[in-house]
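anyone seen this seq b4? input:
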Amino acid sequence: MHLTWFDSNSWLIELAGKRILLDPWLVGPLVFGNLPWLFKGERHGGDRPIPENIDLILLSQGLEDHAHPPTLKLLDRALPVVASVNGARVARDLGFEQVRELPHSQTFNLDARLEIQAFPGAPIGPLLTENAYVLRDLETGTSLYYEPHGYPSPSLKEIAPVDVAITPIVDLTLPILGPIIQGKQTALDVARWLRPQVMLPTAAGGDVVFEGMLNAALRASGSAEDFRSMLAKNELSTQLIEVKPGARVEIPLADRRTNAA
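predicted toks r here
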């Protein structure tokens, strides 16, 4: 398995011989609702190049930091898209021709090589819950869990173990409103429930500068060092790996089938 992190929640996942572009924000600023005074994110180093030979676009949410319209407009509309309800709506509105809406508990099979299963993810208001995903190589069994806001579903316990987990490890909180990203405790839940060999943080850090009224009010809590300490205190062998934005990284994994034998 190879992973490339493009800042924020954007990843390229190379698994089962497939290249999955996940929640891409690669070009231009990140703005919610065309209100840059409220929130705006920009990269120090400018735009990221669009990855070549993409096999699938995977969207966990329909918000701009997961389904970024300026980025999606640069992608081939013939590429297949698997998405949450909101993400599928954005993709269809932008003219993508093959959009599969994946409800919770359902699976999508890519060329009989890669399985994607949807789980409940982050709640968006009282009526909508976005997606988390587990991706699995159907030949080797190698698997990856992704959820970008820190809302792991207890139903994940049924499919443990998972080899790699991508999830927040810090909290981002707004006064009065509470957390918009929660990771300090929920990342530990992911480690307990899924017993991943490796965890990678998402949603925070990277080569991005944020500004605006919303960003000024955000309060961050937690760090990689804090989380490693929590893993150790709970006698969990999971390794936390921090990757540099734009760097393609091979994830070191033991063959659990061999260990079990």
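The chain has six helices and 20 strands. The longest strand covers residues 114-124. kinda curious what u guys think
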